[in-house]
C-alpha cells in the first residue's frame, strides 16, 4: 500500500475509529485499526465484535494494500507530529509513515486476522436528518440502563412507523422518548433495540448530512457521509413503556430551564447520599421551592419563578434524574407536569411536541 493524505483528514478518521476500541481485549487484533485502500480512498475500520466503525479518508492512492496497526499508538502519533501531509506505505506487516520532519515504522498484524464486519444490503433503509437525529439521541439515550440481567433496557428502542422514527430509553426509574421525521415514509412498521453505547457513539460521529439506516439480520447500519457504524441488535421484548405515561396531570409549572437547572445544582450540594430533593409546587406563590438537607452539611431552600396551572403539589425526586434531562435540552423553557407524590412526573420542552421525559418520584 502507498498513499498520500493530509494529517488533518487522517487524524480525524483515526479519532473516530479509535473510539470503538476498549481496554483489556483478549484478542490482540481488536486493539488494531484496519488500513485498507478502497475505491480510491483509504478505509479505516475498527471493531469490538459488538459494533464496528468504518471511515473513509481522501488522498492520492499510488498502490493498493491493507494492514492493521495498534489504534492507540498510531492515533497518538499522528495527533502529535507536526505535518501537513503524510505518506503512508506498508510492507511485510509494517506501516511506514513519512512526513516532512518525521519518519516512523509501526509493526502491525496481517489484515487476514481482522474480524469480518457485516455488510448490510442497501434495499432496506430509512433516511433521517443527521443534525436532528443526533440531537434526539442525546436527549434520550442517557436514560438507558446498564444492566446485564435485563439486556433489553440497556438498549434504545427504535420504532419506525410511517414518516416517524421514535427513540425510547428507560432504566425503569425514568424514560426518555424523542421523535424525528424520516425523509421519506416507510411502508412496514418496524421495531429494533440498539445497544445504548452504539447509539451514543452514533451521536458523536454523524454530522448535519443525511443518515441512512439499514436493517439486516440481527444487525443495523447507520451510514453518513464518509463514516458508517454497524452494530448488533439486542434480542428480546422491550418493556411496554407507554402504560406508565400519564394521560392527565394535576399540576403544571413552566420555568426557565437554565434557572431551574442551576437552582437544582445548588440545592444538590445539600443532599445526602440518597440524592433526594423536594420540590414544592405552589401555584399561589407562583414558585417552585427546591428544598434539600443533609445532617452532615446543612440545608437549602431555593425558589424559582414559574407559570402554573392546577393545584399545589409536593414531590421528592433524585436530583440527578432531573439534571440529566435538563442538561441535554437546548430549549429555553420547560414544563414540569405532576400528579401526586407517588405518581410519575413529566418534563416537556415548551413549544415542542417531539420529546417527553418521565421520571418516577421518590416515595418517602
Automatic annotation (TrEMBL):
UniProt xrefs under InterPro entries: DNA_clamp_sf, DNA_polIII_beta, DNA_polIII_beta_C, DNA_polIII_beta_cen, DNA_polIII_beta_N
DNA polymerase III beta sliding clamp N-terminal domain boundaries: 1-118
Molecular-function annotations in GO: 3'-5' exonuclease activity; DNA binding; DNA-directed DNA polymerase activity
Residue intervals of the DNA polymerase III beta sliding clamp central domain: 128-240
Every DNA polymerase III beta sliding clamp C-terminal domain range: 242-362
Compartment(s) of residence: Cytoplasm
Function noted in UniProt: Confers DNA tethering and processivity to DNA polymerases and other proteins. Acts as a clamp, forming a ring around DNA (a reaction catalyzed by the clamp-loading complex) which diffuses in an ATP-independent manner freely and bidirectionally along dsDNA. Initially characterized for its ability to contact the catalytic subunit of DNA polymerase III (Pol III), a complex, multichain enzyme responsible for most of the replicative synthesis in bacteria; Pol III exhibits 3'-5' exonuclease proofreading activity.
UniProt protein name: Beta sliding clamp
UniProt organism field: Candidatus Doudnabacteria bacterium RIFCSPLOWO2_02_FULL_48_13
Amino acid at each position: 500500500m502507498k498513499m498520500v493524505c493530509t494529517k488533518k483528514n487522517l487524524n480525524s478518521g483515526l479519532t473516530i475509529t479509535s473510539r470503538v476500541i476498549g481496554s483489556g481485549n483478549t484478542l490482540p487484533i481488536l486493539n488494531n485499526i484496519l488500513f485498507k485502500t478502497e475505491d480510491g480512498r483509504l478505509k479505516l475500520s475498527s471493531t469490538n465484535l459488538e459494533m464496528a466503525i468504518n471511515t473513509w479518508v481522501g488522498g492520492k492512492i499510488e498502490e493498493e494494500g491493507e494492514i492493521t496497526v495498534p489504534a492507540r499508538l498510531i492515533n497518538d502519533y499522528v495527533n502529535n507530529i507536526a505535518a501537513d501531509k503524510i505518506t503512508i506505505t506498508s510492507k511485510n506487516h509494517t506501516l511506514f509513515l513519512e512526513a516532512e520532519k518525521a519518519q516512523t515504522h509501526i509493526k502491525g498484524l496481517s489484515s487476514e486476522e481482522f474480524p469480518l464486519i457485516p455488510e448490510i444490503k442497501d434495499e432496506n433503509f430509512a433516511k433521517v436528518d443527521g443534525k436532528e437525529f443526533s440531537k434526539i439521541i442525546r436527549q434520550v439515550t442517557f436514560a438507558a440502563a446498564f444492566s446485564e440481567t435485563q439486556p433489553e433496557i440497556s438498549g434504545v428502542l427504535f420504532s419506525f412507523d410511517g414518516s416517524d422514527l421514535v427513540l425510547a430509553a428507560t432504566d425503569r426509574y425514568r424514560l426518555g422518548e424523542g421523535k424525528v421525521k424520516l425523509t421519506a415514509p416507510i411502508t412496514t412498521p418496524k421495531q429494533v433495540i440498539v445497544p445504548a453505547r452504539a447509539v451514543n457513539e452514533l451521536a458523536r460521529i454523524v454530522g448535519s448530512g443525511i443518515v441512512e439506516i439499514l436493517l439486516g439480520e440481527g444487525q443495523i447500519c447507520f451510514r453518513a457521509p464518509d463514516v458508517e457504524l454497524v452494530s448488533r441488535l439486542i434480542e428480546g421484548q422491550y418493556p411496554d413503556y407507554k402504560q406508565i405515561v400519564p394521560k392527565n396531570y394535576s399540576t403544571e409549572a413552566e420555568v426557565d430551564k437554565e434557572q431551574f437547572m442551576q437552582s437544582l445544582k445548588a440545592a444538590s450540594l445539600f443532599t445526602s447520599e440518597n440524592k433526594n430533593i423536594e420540590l414544592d409546587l405552589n401555584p399561589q406563590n407562583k414558585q417552585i421551592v427546591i428544598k434539600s438537607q443533609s445532617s452532615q452539611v446543612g440545608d437549602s431552600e431555593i425558589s424559582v419563578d414559574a407559570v402554573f396551572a392546577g393545584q399545589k403539589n409536593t414531590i421528592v425526586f433524585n436530583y440527578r434524574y432531573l439534571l440529566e434531562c435538563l442538561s441535554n435540552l437546548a430549549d429555553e423553557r420547560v414544563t414540569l407536569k405532576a400528579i401526586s407524590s407517588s405518581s410519575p412526573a413529566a418534563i416537556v420542552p415548551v413549544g415542542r411536541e417531539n420529546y417527553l421525559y418521565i421520571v418516577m418520584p421518590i416515595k418517602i
